[in-house]
From TrEMBL:
Keyword Cell division attached: no
SMART domains assigned: HTH_ARAC
InterPro entries named among the record's database cross-references: Homeodomain-like_sf (IPR009057), HTH-like (IPR037923), HTH_AraC (IPR018060), HTH_AraC-typ_CS (IPR018062)
Organism of origin: Belliella marina
Highest taxon of the lineage: Bacteria
Domain HTH araC/xylS-type residues, every copy: 201-300
Protein name, per record: Helix-turn-helix domain-containing protein
Amino acid sequence: MKNKKTGETGIWLHKENPGPLTHVPFISQFGNMKFSKVRMDENMKPHLNDGIEVHFIESGRYEWLIEGKSIDLFPGDLSITAPWHWNGSPTGKMDMGQITWIILKPEKYDLQENLDFGAWFKDSKETQISLGRLLASEKGIVIRNAKQFRKYFTSINKELQKQESGFELVIRNLLENFIVDLNRVLTTRQLKIDSEGSFIENLTKEIQSDLSKKWPVEQLAMKFGMGKTKFTELVKKLTGYPPNSFIIHLRIEKAKTILVESDKVNLTDLAYHCGFSSLQHFTTYFSNRTGQSPAQYHHMRNGK
């Protein structure tokens, strides 16, 4: 995309074509491109950049790869990657639609050093450190339906194209506000992730405290202060299993541990200990989940 081709319109400022970016050197790239037809571009394949790369999808659907993970980006989605994160289109294919991106070049930032944007960023050091740690804690971040950030990209694009008096200061202020807002959103997101992680940890401990017990979903939902529907949706979202299947998963995992650690095992006793109503019930679920019967699993891991 170093030169605009048939089927694309917009602006792309970069090292070989910096234009007004010479006045705002903390931005190493800015682009706002609209594609009216599908095209292939080697430059959009997974790549590394010298700064924090942010993409905002204005329209269309884009297949993206971040650190080897395939992600579909939809209108309103925001992706953020650190300098060491590979990201881009898996094949260089750019579908019809519109995408805006910006690369912010910090003075300092790597896995061992805190994020420091430099003298232009007037907000607190704590904001920069917080944002840097949040980005470093994950292999790329995608915020769904992040339409509240569109205003920043629209305004920066306008300022870069018009270059009216004081546009450098306006862009700096826009970016400061963007960074503060992004840090707030990511902090809230992380608190939610931590809370959800704590929920699954506590749920797992509760069930594992007595695997032989029957665990009605309504009872578990009530214990965690939720209705059955919300509880079911949350457990499925966080574990990939509906509640009853998650309970079975924990029972199978416990059985696997005992089968590996024990030389001799009474499979009927093991079935009841792990909460199954019969050996046949246990064997059926175990075989479906592992591809082996409990006896075969024990034999394979103990050589007996």
